[in-house]
Design brief:
The chain has 393 residues and is of the alpha/beta class. It has 2 domains: 201 residues, Glycogen Phosphorylase B (Rossmann fold, 3-Layer(aba) Sandwich); 186 residues, Glycogen Phosphorylase B (Rossmann fold, 3-Layer(aba) Sandwich). The protein has 15 helices and 13 strands. Strands 3-2-1-4-5-6-7 form a 7-stranded parallel β-sheet, with helices on both faces. A 6-stranded parallel β-sheet has the order 10-9-8-11-12-13, with helices on both faces. Helix 2 links the parallel strand 2 and strand 3.
Length: 393
């Protein structure tokens, strides 16, 4: 069986997943190939250290279609034409692609429907409460999505959303939003063994709460600032560290000044992925207070580094990897007072914080690239058996 992985750009997050898929597929006697459409990402504008390492020894089964080009800069007809040639020449049995609404995933869906030469699975972390949904748009989306053979999604709520779009539950598996847990766990332990050196290198305060979010409206970073001010943790010597950038940066800086928090809030606009374990490891906990978030991979990373999390209920990771009162707290989106109360509670109760931290590290242990690989191949088996049954009459 030949599984083809088609993606716009292979970023740092996707590389561990792809590697795990290749390794497991080889053990099961399957072939995996990679089609990367664009050499550069239009989303990540910072260096991709994992990608750089990965490309030092480019796999023979990898092709980058538009070299020297960023995602989204080619007309979809041009992309479709090149993709048609590649799929026709390589003849995969299964194609797994990112999303159901990218230009290339839509074209692959069309190609699959017309030729029926391969089965098509999409990867997604969309869920029902990702902002306001419109009935007509959802109906049109269902027409498209139901043409896919299956879905690899982030969690159970994402499976339910895929079901609402026409993917039966038995043809969806979880495991899309996973990280290299061992890397973050081991790197964090190494940092804590030399904590003073790491604090000096990044000019980190002795105690801090961490928020890793793009500076856009739905991430609710100003709300985090307000909750931090209300918690009065600054008066106890606890700081807030923000990692992110975006169009609201100036608004956020003005908010910090207006709240009188200039001495207690630090902003890191550009941190390499390889340096993030240090910031997670030395934090008290992480906060993700988005109005909605499809998942929140920074939470996985923090948990792997042994840190608990406070997340809003509408974050995809809530009630999937973050469980209220067990390895973190889940708060109502937009509720400043509840967020402030939980921040204060977790910062002031060392024993509670350590207990939740241990549980966080234990919970995230299985959310690895191996889970991704296992469930991709499990999906191929489910879909193959379904078609064999039909063929057998």
């Amino acid at each position: 069986m030949h599984v083809q992985f088609v993606i716009g750009n292979l970023s740092d997050y996707h590389i561990p997943r792809y590697r795990a898929l290749v390794q497991l597929a080889l053990r099961q006697g399957c072939k995996v190939s990679l089609v990367e459409l664009f050499e550069y990402s239009s989303f990540y504008d910072y260096p991709q250290s994992n990608r750089t390492t990965f490309l030092q020894d480019v796999p023979s089964d990898m092709v980058t279609v538009f070299k020297g080009t960023a995602a989204g800069t080619k007309h979809w007809l041009t992309v479709a034409a090149r993709l048609r040639v590649i799929v026709g020449a390589t003849r995969p049995d299964f194609v797994i692609t990112l999303g159901y609404n990218t230009s290339y995933s839509i074209y692959l869906c069309l190609l699959r429907t017309l030729t029926r030469r391969f089965k098509l699975v999409y990867m997604s972390d969309s869920k029902a409460d990702d902002g306001k949904r419109h009935r007509l748009k959802e109906a049109l989306k269902r027409i498209l999505v139901s043409r896919f053979d299956g879905a690899l999604v982030a969690g159970e709520k994402h499976r339910r959303y895929a079901e609402s779009l026409g993917i039966p539950l038995h043809r969806s598996h979880i495991g899309f939003d996973v990280i290299d847990v061992a890397y973050f766990r081991d790197a964090a332990k190494a940092v804590r063994a030399h904590a003073d050196s790491a604090r000096h290198r990044f000019a980190l305060p002795s105690r801090y709460v961490l928020c890793v979010s793009r500076f856009v409206e739905r991430k609710n970073v100003p709300l985090v600032l307000e909750a931090f001010a209300c918690s009065e943790l600054a008066q106890q010597g606890v700081s807030l560290v923000l990692v992110g950038q975006g169009p609201l940066e100036q608004t956020i800086r003005e908010k910090i000044a207006a709240l009188g928090l200039s001495e207690r809030v630090l902003i890191f606009s550009a941190i390499l992925n390889c340096d993030m374990p240090a910031l997670y490891a030395l934090a008290d906990f992480i906060v993700l207070a988005s109005a909605f978030d499809q998942w929140g991979l920074c939470v996985n990373e923090a948990m792997a580094a042994g840190r608990p999390a406070i997340v809003s209920r509408t974050c995809g990771c809530a009630n999937e990897v973050v469980h209220d009162g067990i390895n973190g707290f889940i708060v109502r989106p937009g509720d400043r007072d509840q967020l402030a109360m939980r921040m204060k509670q977790l910062a002031e109760d060392h024993a509670l914080r350590e207990d939740l931290a241990r549980n966080a590290e234990s919970t995230i242990r299985d959310w690895t690239p191996e889970l991704f690989a296992q469930n991709v191949l499990a999906l191929t088996n489910v879909i193959l058996k379904r078609n064999d049954a039909y063929a057998g009459g």
